[in-house]
Design a protein that fits this description.
8 helices, 27% strand, alpha/beta, 289 residues, binds ribose-5-phosphate, Rossmann fold
């Protein structure tokens, strides 16, 4: 087995190859002036490959994976696994307006046509129960970062109170709290647009508490920022946040800094300066078993 990575996700892909004790090779990508990508695979390929690349800012990455996968198949590769810790297009799981594409199933099935197996971490599944519904045509494995996140929090001084900013986050908050025997709560959220959310905290005395907000995705950062501001107004002493997929578009870092968040922590699902948790052991364990 051989692991193929891309320069934009090199460190994580190399760590995964090391954890699996297999060879790491890189797919070279060149962009032509008009944006077209040309991918070049290593000339020697094993019969079984793992492609490792997270799919934030996905459009170019998907085309490059498509080109790389087809090329590997043409060269006789039999078995290809995609390891994409952040799986794109999972949020658009229904047509909210007439004519809208349901990207979750379209992209899911496309990946299923290309790969024999797709491994990801805490995909954003809201209205469906499991990833098989989005990728019915390949084996799919869903891992959760809650174990490593709980281990990370267990190393910190002073057990915090955990807060999920919306009902969807309950699944992750509950798991981390259970593992570390922490108190947990969930707020409610109403989204009025990409950059506008309203958070209502549950009825609770937050005075002088150390709170960690836990969420799967920070995209514009508005969800976490609103929750942090509400907690501060309610008297919380310190607010930190722990994020699985730090998408951090545009001014997210500034938005979180303005919300008086002391520490922003994330997993290396997506490369970011806030990465403190490496997912390689979790991914390697799933591939081994
Ligand atoms: C949505 O339900 C997710 O769990 C996140 O809360 C959401 O994607 C965060 O988005 P933003 O950072 O743009 O508020």
């Amino acid at each position: 087995m051989q692991l193929l990575g891309f320069a934009d996700y090199r460190e994580q892909a190399q760590r995964l190859a090391d954890a699996l004790a297999i060879k790491y090779s890189e797919i070279a990508v060149h962009h032509f002036p008009d944006g077209e990508s040309i991918v070049t695979l290593p000339t020697e390929l094993d019969h079984e490959l793992i492609f490792c690349r997270s799919l934030d800012y996905p459009n170019n990455k998907l085309i490059e994976l498509f080109l790389a996968c087809k090329t590997a198949r043409q060269q006789g590769v039999k078995q290809i696994t995609l390891v994409a810790p952040y799986l794109c297009y999972m949020r658009q799981d229904m047509a909210f307006h007439p004519g809208e594409a349901v990207s979750q199933t379209i992209i899911g099935q496309w990946l299923g046509e290309l790969f024999d197996r797709v491994i990801t971490v805490d995909p954003h599944l809201h209205r469906i129960e499991d990833l098989d519904q989005a990728i019915p045509n390949a084996e799919s494995i869903v891992l959760s970062a809650t174990g490593p996140m709980a281990e990370f929090l267990a190393q910190r001084p002073n057990p915090p109170l955990l807060l999920g900013p919306d009902s969807e986050s309950e699944q992750w908050v509950k798991q981390i709290a259970k593992q570390n025997q922490l108190e947990w709560l969930v707020a409610s959220k109403v989204r009025h647009g990409d950059h506008k959310v309203e958070i209502t905290l549950p009825d609770y005395d937050f005075s002088d508490r150390i709170v960690v907000i836990v969420d799967d995705v920070a995209s514009t950062g508005r969800t976490i920022a609103r929750a942090a501001k509400a907690l501060k107004q309610a008297g919380a002493q310190t607010v930190n946040c722990l994020i699985t997929h730090p998408l951090f578009v545009d001014d997210t870092e500034q938005v979180l800094a303005n919300a008086c968040i002391t520490h922003v922590w994330s997993t290396d699902s997506i490369s970011h300066s806030t990465n403190v948790i490496q997912l390689a052991p979790l991914l390697a364990h799933a591939i081994h078993h």
